[in-house]
Amino acid sequence: MAGKDSREFREIYERLLVFYGPRGWWPVTREGGSRPEYCGGPVNHSQRLEVALGALLTQNTSWRGAGKALENLISRKLMNLQSLLEIPETELASLIRPSGYFNQKARKIKTFIKFLAERYGQSWQRFFSEPADRMRELLLELNGIGPETADSIVLYAAGQASFVIDNYTKRLFYRLGHSPLGIPYESLKRRFEKALPAESALYGEYHALIVTHCKERCTSRKPACTGCPLSDLCARRGVVSGKD
DNA sequence: GCCCAGGCTTAAA
DNA sequence: TTTAAGCATGGG
User: Fold this and answer.
1) Strand C interface, protein residues by Cβ within 7 Å
2) pLDDT, tens digit (0-9, with 9 covering 90-100), for A141-164
3) Where does a domain end: A157, A179, A204?
4) Within window 147-206 on A, which residues have Cβ closer than 7 Å to strand B?
5) Which of A4, A26, A67, A140 is deepest in the core (most CB within 10 A)?
6) Taking the CA of residue A93 as centre, how many other CA atoms within 13 Å lie in the half-sphere pointing to its CB?
7) Per residue in A84-102, pLDDT tens?
8) Number of other CB atoms surrounding residue A52 within 10 Å
9) CA→C1' distance for A105 and C8 (Å)
């Protein structure tokens, strides 16, 4: 089974990479820049923090709104532990309004920031050097961080191999005929991690390509199957349907 | 107006 | 243990 997944998951990856090209995930704001751009992920700790907050802010929300919320924080020089620790939760909520669920998300950000400060103090950057499994475990204990957000932080903020699953991944691999409709998160994650070598660059690119493909082509309502780079591998090619 | 968007928590069945 | 409701803005 792992052998079959291994061949097929790699083939899907190669096809998507050729078709769309490298995605440059996760978007980060350059030093002196005003908004997040796709240029290859974080290279400093302020950017790692930005990626982690972005992962919280984009929960069940389009990236557009999350990006705008990040811009607001960055333009006010708040993308550092001390400022985020000091800002009142209500003020934080008003700044991240465009990302939706702003009250809940403000609380989640506060929870995460307090965790870093209380556990690591001044050397909070050490958090990103925790082993991937340990980091994931710590994140999952925090209110507001579930499996996808935890994996996004481990993979894109810390640069460690942990495969990210999301609804796009579930939908695409269901349509391709590789997994049942309501497959549990951990189950699909394990399949990817067994099928592929544990390389953060590979995991990061793969997830980014899946998101691109599902946003641009394999959409919820009317998938654009004509010209799809995966159509000859797909169990549901040409099947027009409402959902799924 | 309805549907969807790079989820998660809490409470009810 | 599975299912539903709630969270909320913004674009198509």
Assistant:
1) A 60-62, 64-65, 97-98, 100-105, 182
2) 999 999 999 999 999 999 999 999
3) A157
4) 147-150, 152, 156, 166-168, 185
5) A26
6) 11
7) 999 999 999 999 999 999 9
8) 27
9) 11
